[in-house]
Structures are given as C-alpha cells and as structure tokens.
Design brief:
The protein has about 450 residues and is of the alpha/beta class. It contains 17 helices and 15 strands. The protein folds into two domains: about 325 residues, Aldolase class I (TIM Barrel), CATH 3.20.20.70; about 35 residues, no CATH class. The protein is globular. It holds the Pfam family Glu_synthase.
Amino acid sequence: MTALRAPGFPEDAVRARARNGTAEVFPAAEGYGSLLFGAPDAPPARTDELDRARLVPPVFMPRRLEKLIELAREPRHDDVELRTGVGGFAASLPLYLSAFGSTRAGSGDLSVAAGRQAARLGLPMVIGENMVPVHGYRRGGPDTERSALLSRIAAYRDEVADGVGGVVVQQSTEDADSEVWNLVYSDPDSQSLLASGRLGFELKIGQGAKPGLGGMTVTGDAESARLAERFDLQDVFGAGSGRRLRCASPGTFTEEIVRQQLRFMRNNFPLARVWVKLHPGRDVADAARVAWAAGADAVAVDGAEGGTGWAPHSFLGGVGLPLAECLSRVAAAGGPGDGCLLASGRMWEGGRAVRAMALGARAVGLGRAALVAVDEDPRDGLVRLADALALEARLLISALGKYRAADLSPEDLWWPGAAPAAAPSAAAPASADGEVAA
C-alpha cells in the first residue's frame, strides 16, 4: 500500500471498503444489540449539490406490486437488476472505470491492476489521454518492454469474461498527432476486443479538473530536452528546480467540428464504439445533444468535482459546473432520450451513484476511488468496493419501489432549499432500459 493522498476525498472510507467490502455498508456488527443507532448528531459533510439531495421513497409503490405479481412473492432488494448497457457495451453493473491518463499514481501502474479487476467485474474501462506522447507505443519483444497503453489493454483483455465489458481509448489533440486510434485499431493485440465489439474510442473535449485547459504534466530536465521540439514547456517552478511545465492544447471545438470529428470516427473505425467526454461547461446540454445527434454511443460528463488530473489551484475549486447542475441541464433540455449519458465526479458509494442515475445518467465512473481501492488491495480492492456500491444501489432502488436502475427519475429526489436551477420536477417516461444483449 502506498500513500496516494486524495485531498478532500474520503480516502479512509474507500480504503475500508476495499478491505471489508459489503460490511462497510452497515454500522459495525459488533454494536448490534448493545448500541442505539439513529441519525448522527451532525450530518456528514456535504461537498456539492449532488450530495445535498435526498432520496425520497413514496408510500404507494405500484411497481413493487407489479414485481410481486411477476415473482409470485414479495420482492426483495436483491431482485433489483443492475446489469445495463454502457456506451454500446454490456456491463454487469452501472459502473465504468473513468479515464486514467499517463500519470502512474502509487507504486507502479495502478491502472493495470484496476484494469484486471474491472475486467473480472465486467465493467468497461477508459484509458486516458497522453499515454503515447508520454510513454511511447511499444508492442514489446525480447529486448523491449510493452508500453503503458498496451500493458493496460492486455491486462484487461486477458481477464475479461465473454459478453461483457470493453476498453475505450481516449484521444486528445496531442494523441491525435501520435495517431493513437490508428495504432490501437490496427494492432493485432486489440483484434479480439475489436472482433467481439468491445473496443471503443473517446473524443476528449475536456475534463472536470481543468475545464477549458489542455493536459498539463511536470517533466524533468532530461524529458524536457526530449520534448522541447514537440510541446510547449514553461519554466514556472524556478531556475534550477529540475522541473518544467509541459502544456498541451485543449483543442478547438464548435458544433460543426464535433460533428465532423464523430463522422470521421465512425467512418474510419467502423467496428469501434464512439464516446465523447465533456467538461462541465455552461452549454453542456447543447454539446451533449450535438454529440448524440452525430452518433455518439455515449456522452460522458465529468463534473467539476471530478478528475484526478493535476491542475492549477484556481481551477480545482472555482471553475466549471457541479455535476448535479450538469445533469439537471441535460435533463431540462430533454434528457438523453435513447442516448447513453455517463457521469463522473467523486463517485465512491451507492447513494451518490443512485442520485446521479435519478438525474439521467445510465452509469457512473469510478476514478480516484478505483485507484485508492486498488492501492489498498491490488488483487480484490476494486471488486470489494464495487460489491459494496452495488449492494447500496440495490437497497436504495428497492426502497424507492423500483427494480431497474433505468426506472430512476428526478421525482425520487428532494432538494433542501433550492434545487439546481434547471432541475426538472419529474422525469419523462424511460424509452429504453439500457439492456445490451451479451
């Protein structure tokens, strides 16, 4: 175990879940029969609007009656179906691994261990930007080590079960210069994923850590000299520090540029799924609409709470919309309809995940929580974390009188004080359950 340090993130709680799994969903069993339980004297710290909302079950539950008739018995929480479709892939849970980029947090590359566990769980995994510009693209051989990008793909591919999961490779403007999608699409090691419909590409338009900015990494003197001809390097840490700031362009996007880019992706990589990742901009609903209309299999919204990315202090606390506001604006504009909306940003427990799905998300992305869980236990930490989250989700959805995550809606939420500005009071009927045939 290493000290990852995730400022402002409930790292201790995530580590406990990685160790103990579903036991952490409940109060300590040792206290049963000897302690009195109830609401805490002070509520848990609320970090953003999504955490402020409460899930509110109704008294009358017609869908529970429908389920009772279907089962010929009283339904239970474990009758809740969580299997769903995530951006064209079948997934065992409404979860996916958010984009882990070029940074190798912790000891070694935690993303390789996270990929193995996600594959065992049947969850899609996104591989983030800057992998090839930073680490190169090496297929490996007698005298060379396989590159970080291909190591992550191989780790996932070798563990994934038939019919579920998928790998999505993100591309930024830097990656486009390195032709990352072309390399992966034609690589023999990717062909089994491609042939089984479990390879996808994600166009990165932005991320929650630094909306409107491109990638930023810290480089040493030797690496700076190697990259000087290709990238913008700035000496912001002082002369003699041995470190320089490498800045990447975020890319320039308009509605027509996004349409053309997605058309290019569909035409040039016809067997790959097409995803788009949006930062929490004020026109996020318009951007999502354009992407779905252009054929995106999924639109991922990264709230301002999200992103493990290294960013200026002024961005981390003061730029971009909170995730709840992003989801509410998309819902108020008509919602995803038949499209797949994904949400990421401080996801680590079932309550937050269910609230995001009530606002229209098909699934939620695990970022920092997944890395912390894998750091705690490289073999089973993420599996235990997902088990705890799935149990909470089933308990909560069942308590709402529903038995599919797709049936959640804004009516299941109550906002103390004012709701996010664009939050609808009720949901439109679900047009699809998100199921994907295995």
